[in-house]
Amino acid sequence: MASVEFKHIEKIYPGNVHTVKDFNLKINDGEFIVFLGPSGCGKSTTLRMLAGLEDISGGEILINDKVVNDLEPIERDIAMVFQSYALYPHMTVYQNIAFALRLAGLSKAEIEKKVRPVADMLELTPLLDRKPKALSGGQRQRVAMGRAMVRTPEVFLFDEPLSNLDAKLRNSMRTEIKILHKKMKKTTIYVTHDQVEAMTLADRIVILRDGKVEQVGTPSEIYHSPANKFVAGFIGSPAMNFIPIELAKDEGCWFVDISGQKLNLLGDVDDNQTATKATLGIRPCDIHITPDLLTNPLVIKGKVENLELLGSTIQLTSRLGDSQIAIEAPSSHVVNEDEVINFYIDESRLQMFSDQSGLSIYKPKAVLESVTDQ
Amino acid sequence: MFAMRKIRWGKYIFLMLVAGFVLVPMFATVLGGFKSLGELRTNPFGLPDVWEFEYYAQVFADGSIWLLMKNSLIIAFFSVLLTLIIGTMTAFTFSHIKFAGYKYIYNYFLIGMMFPAAAAILPLFLKIRDLGLLDSLSGVVIPQVAFGLGFSILLFRSFFEQLPSELFDAARVDGCSYIKFYWHVILPLSTPILATVGVFVLVASWNNYLLPLLVLNTEQQYPWTLGIMQYRGEYGIEWNRILAYVTVTITPAIVFFLFAQKYIVEGLTGGAVKG
Amino acid sequence: MFLPLALLLFTIFVILPIGEAGYYSLFRWNGYGEPSKWVEFSNYVRLFKHGAFDTAVWNTFKIILVSLVIQLPLALIIALSIYKKSWTNSLFRLIFFLPYILAEVAAGLIWRFVFDGDYGVIARFTEALNTDTWYLLADKNWAFVAILVVLVWKYFGFHMMIYIAALQGVPKDLIEASKLDGASRFQAIWYVKIPLIMSGITISIFFSILGALQTFDLIMPLTGGGPSNSTHTLVSYLYTFGITRMNVGFGSAVGVVLFICCVIFAFTYQSTIMKDKK
């Protein structure tokens, strides 16, 4: 049973480079947490501080309510899978997996008893006598995982383990990791810059930028209720459309002006919002070209500038004033380039962000009315 | 964490001791030249109470030391020049012009690397004598170059092999002959390895003792390695003079090392570690 | 092209002489005119019977032993302490490498002074302890020890550099992985670092042994081979007994022995220990 807690964690490198700023997080036993963010956001650094590979400049890290700041990695009962796998090139697969046990002084028989089942689980048994350079990327990755698993640690750490694999392999390894986690139920912290990995694997995602936490939430929360513009634009592919708009109140109702077209907002705008300029956010898949299935569609007109058939979907681009927007629709619909058509915006998915703070300032009516929006 | 502190201190003490082991003799040598003989006897390692400059001055007095340095320089210069030219041309032949049996000839050269000049020194000496090169600087230069060829060709060839082969193809399309290609393309691109090999040949030549000892007879031809032993023989136990002399002669090497250390280290470790 | 020239040079000055050495070793000759006195292998017999030659061979072994047991491990320990990049480490590396670039004759003279019974360290010690002056380099039993000290002083930096380069090539995350696996500093060195720098260690041993066989320039300024021929190495022996006395046949015999040793060592070492390399 292992909970992990970060209290006001800071990391400052010499030269006053402030890589991690006031990081706070409570992780429950058995959770799969993903640190997600662009390069240099501090996610790996934080992970390494937890592992004991980096000194902690400020704050405390607790594992099972015990402060571990001054403990060596081995004393923290954690295991880590590195991005480069870090397999010992001069040892066989068996020896790589068994190394930690050997250091701990276990007898040959005991080591054998522990290594075999792990090797079986990861389908490494036929490869046990090979050296890392005779293995494929996916096999090496599994050896790295086996090495971590055989020690039965309390916490598993993964540092971008799939980055070095090709796309197809990445998908299958991702599934394997998920299955393993379901089976073993150990607290896992996983670092990646790939949002697909984050969305599919995580119980909760921690989004980081420039050393600060932008949002913590389940994949659903992050996707549907992004706390700020950065998170909204980072998650989701194709990326969310951002449209500069003018806000105004008319007889107690909010409405927005998008280059001359007016839309009535049905939800609530944050009280602190005083400026009249803001940014509207709507995902391409939430802009429809027919009003079917929508309860409160907001209608705007636009010319279809570009059209691409992607198989089951079509992607259109259009223009609202100075902004270009992207629309994703099922390919069963018939649309032609240069046509001027109606776009129906799903109000329940509408986002709005302050131009000053980037924070989300709008709650759609559907979210207000219903408890969940699944 | 405290254990780490203690280990760190222990490590530094150890390193300082080793550094002392290395530097104390050298400092004593430099300082020794500034002491009178009597003071040297009583205070071999400390700073001189009285700084006597006459011994260093005398080292330079009759100008012979400049002659010695000049000889060393001439020998070294030509050794480097010839080794670089002949070595690169030969290596170029091996790496780009694969003719029948080239592997055998290549290995033939490599054999030369396996035993020291000292083993065949006697017949070598006789040969030099019979060729009339005895007591001449060329008698030192040519054998040095010959023995250095194996090593140089090895380094050059492995460097040339790493150059992209498309370069040669492009040059041929442009109508470039072998010689022109060698001169205009290979050499300019090879400056790092030329520097590295050059530095090694230079240092080996500059420090060479055995070969000049055998070949050269007239004092005017002596390189500094012979000169220093002569000085020693002359001044017997007047260590202050001898140390002054040693200091003067090793200063160029040290200065050179400080400037060229990058190449020395690179060549040493690159060649050695990569095998 | 220059290939023929290179071949010519090489053959004349490198290959031919060793062949001739083999030839001359069968004669008793003073180097002038033609070799005339055919003595078959008596040069070799004389050689192996000569006490000084035995000493020289033994001394060479001692050099190899000291190198492998003291000098190389010392170089390795130092390399492990200072291979990481930092200002102080670079300074240390420079200092430790300095003796290597000095000419052997210079190094020999420097230490000749240090060991001098009247003027050197020894003198200070004996004075401080109030004993008789000890002429270390004239002491049959201790002179070679002094030479061994100088050898270590001169060459440990060279080997250290090789190890440092090899250590810097070890990927950092391998060490981190070993930390996570629970390795102490020593265990990380023993189980990870050293196996991964094996090729560097192999090369360093190779150079060390070849160098031991060739030691000459250092001997002359320190002892000249004495006292009582106790500090000769193979090459200084060759010089003293072959060259200075113009005993060409005899000297060639020594040369041939040296050559055979070197070649046997080089071949066997290359084909066995160095075989694994790509």
Q: What is the number of independent domains of chain A? A: 2
Runs of chain B in which pLDDT lies below 50 for 5 or more consecutive residues are: none
CATH class of the largest domain in chain A: Alpha Beta
Q: How are the strands of the biggest sheet of chain A laid out side by side?
A: 6-7-8-3-9-10
Strand content of chain A: 25-35%
Give the tally of β-strands of chain B: 0
Summing up helix and strand content along with how strands pair, one would put the structural category of chain B as: mainly alpha
CATH superfamily of the largest domain in chain A: P-loop containing nucleotide triphosphate hydrolases
User: In the CATH scheme, what's the topology name of the domain at 63-235 in chain B?
Assistant: MetI-like fold
Question: pLDDT average of chain A, as an integer?
Answer: 88
Largest sheet of chain A: 6 strands, mixed
Main sheet: strands, sense, barrel of chain B: none
Q: N- to C-terminal separation of chain B?
A: 40 Å
Terminal residue distance of chain A: 31 Å
Describe this structure in words.
The complex is a heterotrimer of chains A (374), B (275) and C (278). In chain A, the strands form six sheets. Chain A has a six-stranded mixed sheet with strand order 6-7-8-3-9-10, sandwiched between helices. The two termini of chain A are 31 Å apart. Chain A has helices at 43-51, 93-103, 108-121, 137-149, 167-184, 195-201, 219-224, 229-234, 365-369, and strands at 4-13, 17-27, 32-36, 58-63, 66-67, 78-81, 155-159, 187-192, 204-209, 212-217, 241-250, 253-258, 261-264, 268-269, 277-282, 287-288, 298-303, 306-309, 313-320, 323-330, 340-345, 351-354, 362-363. Chain A has two domains: 4-230, P-loop containing nucleotide triphosphate hydrolases (Rossmann fold); 238-367, Beta Barrel (OB fold (Dihydrolipoamide Acetyltransferase, E2P)). Chain A has nine helices and 23 strands. Chain B has 13 helices and no strands. Chain B has helices spanning 2-32, 37-42, 54-61, 64-96, 102-111, 121-130, 137-162, 165-173, 178-189, 191-207, 210-215, 224-235, 239-274. The longest helix of chain B is centred in the last third of the chain and has 36 residues, at 239-274. Chain B starts with a helix and ends with a helix. The model of chain B has no long low-confidence stretch (mean pLDDT 78). Chain C has 278 residues and is mostly helical. Chain C has a single domain (38-271), classed as MetI-like fold, CATH 1.10.3720. Chain C is built from 13 helices and two strands, in the order H-E-E-H-H-H-H-H-H-H-H-H-H-H-H. Chain C has a two-stranded antiparallel sheet. In chain C, helix 7 runs antiparallel to helix 10. Chains in contact: A-C, B-C. The interface between B and C is large, with 82 and 88 residues.
